[in-house]
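Notes from the 1:1 (GR / supervisor)

We went over the backlog. Supervisor wanted to see one worked example end to end before approving the batch request, so GR pasted a single chain during the call. The sequence is below; no edits were made to it. Supervisor asked that the structure be written out right there so they could see what the output format looks like.
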Amino acid sequence: MLPNDDQSSLQEAARRFARSRLLPTYMQREKDAKEDKPTDRALLREMGTLGLLGVDVATEHGGLGVDGVTTGLIVEELAYGDFNISAIVLVMSLCGAIIAKNAAPTVAAEWLPRIPRGDAILALSITEPGVGSDAGALKLQATRDGDSYVLNGEKASTTYCDCADAFLVFARTGSVEQGARGVTAFLVPAATPGITTTRYRDVGSHMAGRGSVFFDQVRVPADHRLGDEGKGFSQVMAGFDYSRALIALQCLGAAQASLDEAWAYTKEREAFGGPIARFQGVSFPLVEGETQVAAARQLSYHALALRDAGQAHTVEAAMVKWLAPRTAFDVIHQCLLTFGHYGWTMDLPHQQRMRDVMGLEIGDGTAGIMKMIVARARAGRAATEERGTVA
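Structure output shown during the call:
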């Protein structure tokens, strides 16, 4: 895939910002997050001024209205500088798309312009204790009461739970027997009475502030419902095809940063009378990493190009969602080893990148779930048969 002139200009702007502004302070932001320092809103507003946030939000709401491929180019470049900053861009794209397609005009007019300005962080609240990829089994209850809904229950593994300005909450409005058809989505401002949060101690991506959100008699106006009752599951599933391709590029951007740093080190580090780049045992693993990253990158942009063309891309998005995080982790690990004993310190960013990308081997669907999606697409009902029955 070769970007056109407009895409190249946006890509270059993201590249300059990522390498001059984000990369030098990538590790510092993790330290700040561990000390519970708030997300740098000034940095987000700076990105908004540069047109690097909410790029796929429609122009009437302050965005650039670009397509999925262009959004992917920006996400990948930003991830090169800071994996976690690129995650904000990605989640805002997913949430913005859901709001744009399903929110009441007044709600969309209030929240969508805040995304490209960097004035709002939105969180997607789907997962519950004991309920991960099976979104049809959600239990958090939303009960209609006049011109409002009352929400009660708990959401788990919500990214940005402690800094979000609003939550996109997927709750059960129908019976448990209805499964996915009984799930409805709501936009719930974080300041609504009855919401409390707790933060997890995660292995990586500390800036993401993942945690649980508790809803105790939380009253939400009916006009904050996103779409019709019972349509929440289909809304989020459609959005995941988009976000999974972007997640892949996010992981690959981080891997490319480590590769570039490792190549530079092989030219500077000398052993046995010359630079270590001349040893195939050093250079060939990096060549393999470059190849694997390039291949996964092409599949990612292919999935986004299919989306932009209005074609089915569920299979391609699922393929790259399991492939790219694993590839990125393995490649970054090899880069760490390339630095030898120096790589085994907290002074270099490879250990942080490795921990950060690992989280996306789980988030937005595990590799097992992604492979099942592809298997069902290829084998149909045969892929769902178990002991003579169809699941």
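Supervisor's comment: The domain at 5-117 is CATH 1.10.540.10 (Butyryl-Coa Dehydrogenase, subunit A; domain 1).
Batch request approved.
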